[in-house]
Amino acid sequence: xxxxxxxICIKWGDKFGPEYVNRLYAMAxxxxxxxxxxxxxxxxxxxxxxxxxxxxxPTLGCAHPERTIGKWPKVALWGSxxxxxxxxxxxxxxxxxxxxxxxDYFSYGSPNxxxxxxxxxxxxxxxxxxSIFRFPVGKNPHILENxxxxxxxxxxxxxxxxxxxxxxxxxxxxxxxxxxxRHFRLHCLxxxxxxxxxxxxxxxxxxVVTFPGGPNPxxxxxxxxxxxxxxxxxxxxxxxxxxxxxxSVRARWRYIKRYVLPCEWVKTHWRE
Length: 272
Description:
This protein is α/β, with parallel strands linked by helices. It folds into two domains: 6-175, Spore Coat Polysaccharide Biosynthesis Protein SpsA, Chain A (Alpha-Beta Complex); 187-269, no CATH class. Helix content is 29%, strand content 16%. It has ten helices and ten strands. The protein has helices spanning 18-31, 104-107, 142-149, 151-158, 161-168, 184-188, 217-221, 235-245, 249-257, 264-269; strands at residues 6-11, 37-42, 53-56, 88-92, 97-98, 115-118, 128-136, 174-175, 181-183, 208-210. The strands form two sheets. Strands 3-2-1-4-7-6-8 form a seven-stranded mixed β-sheet, with helices on both faces. Strands 5-10-9 form a three-stranded mixed β-sheet. The longest helix is centred in the N-terminal third of the chain and has 14 residues, at 18-31.
């Protein structure tokens, strides 16, 4: 592959269909100057547009942690070899939205830097968030090697793959400039109860909006938190459902807080 601007993504299982990859390519095409390449590491190439290059999923080479949350298959990206790639590559989660030009993500810092979004859920922790990050392929193979030796122990210690990565990169990580990457739930979605009356705010200075922990773009367009919620419910319908279909105060309160209005700017940007 000749382009110097390389984006990679991972699609495994059936959580995200091919439309997520295809829309990521289309958004990148609209918001990158000149040539670029998108490589999808996947176990199912069906439905992917022809411009997307595919590679087999990189393997962890060990048992997957069983009792710990976190997207641990991402650790496989840190091996000494990755689909024949070299140099810096930009990883983007499939449920991200590119909203303006992202050329700077390829040129910021040094080619050998590992650059992550800040973990906005805990902004003072020094931890990174791996919805969008750049790294030099093969430069930190110890991350995967050490994980293979003790996957469950590492997962128990760090809980999230991104915490393990942040703590393991040789020389430490760097962060993207603050306003480039915005967290939908924390930066765009109004706090409860304002989200019953106000839609998500468009982050004017952002380049990419990420959706860690949900809701994801497809559900936002339908005005629901996830597939367990009915689409396009009014506030009254949502609250009524919470009281008639939940069995505990905790579950009811959780349901009531997870209300979101359909968002036109998400629909505008998250498309082919």
